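Case study: Sphingomyelin phosphodiesterase 2.
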Amino acid sequence: MEGDPTLQLRIFDLNCWAIRYLSKRRQERVRLIGDTLRREEFDLVLLQEVWSEQDYSDLKVKLGRCYPFSHYFRSGVIGSGLCVFSRFPILDTLLYQYSLNGYPYMLQHGDWFCGKSVGLVIIKISGIIFNVYVTHLHAEYCREKDAYLPHRLVQAWELAQFIRHTSKAADVVLLGGDLNMHPEDVGIRLLRGWTGLRDAFAEATRFEGCEDGCTLVPNNCFTVKTELLPFPLGIRIDYILYKAISSFTVKCEELKTTTGTAPGKDIPFSDHEAVMATLLIQRQGQAAGATHSTAELTLVDVVTEARLEVGVGLRAARRQRYSTGRMAVLALLLLLLQALAVLGALVGLDAGQPFPKLSFSLLAFLAIGILLLATGLHLFHTMEVKMLQGTEEQMRMVLQALRERP
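Here is what the predicted structure looks like once written out:
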């Protein structure tokens, strides 16, 4: 690559679905992923859902000769699951954890405990500075009634802002990850519109893989078939996005996805298909300027739509805050009534009847438990309200600035 006026970069992106004790045949699949990466020798490898640090360590040992540089991003209770392997030196890293990421009491989903984040690694190849971002947004568990849509939109907005504010010194920006959004969803349109990132699938000169570039497909033995019934071909939620910042151009020469089981094996790498892109980076005179008139008019509509959805989430969060606050007050009143009853018994107001100590103790423990739970939920939903308010205010300011531009 060195000295070549056109730099070719091969990228591998995969949601590994490597959850200790929960993911099917996890260790076997992790070894299979490592063997494939060592054989193919990509330039950059972006992985999500590597929840076990032992799996990361095993991959690091296996891939050490091919990918001497790597980084694992730690956050949340069980970790972000994000890691990067590179053939080129990593100059710097940075992690940003999203302010909203689901609910701690939704244990069956578990996103809150992961500390969903975006990780940044900065690398330099042939004098070109690359800002490489890897992320995993909150999952969509029910498309018809998506309670997490406002949180995912906040994450998409924070991801876009993070990229905008950290990529000013870069020559090329790359983003890979499981965005848990369909290509036409408002979150994807917001992210791409606000950052100017281009979709490798849409821009690829050649494509090979699952139809429509889908990365969650029904014929994968690990997918939940019932969740994909409305989408017989599957859905595309894993992406490689890119753009040139300075006097460079980036072109996607080829994009591939895996298509089921790995070669010679009876299982795929993951419940997601891997995405592999070959990008061509070339130096030019000046970076092409954006067509503000058309792009900004479209962006106004997208930000307006996103702001409305965030507003829906804000109203729901306020209702939750009110309900949990009222529950805490009722539990506190119950404790006060019990305290008065105990005080009355102590001064002899009910001397003719025995005092039911066991019943009062059980009721007191129940009231204390409800009070603690309701207070914790009230504080959580108060923070949720503040985060949604902050995002809505940012979007309002952006809309005002866009509309005032000549």
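For the exam, be able to explain this: The chain has eight helices and 13 strands.
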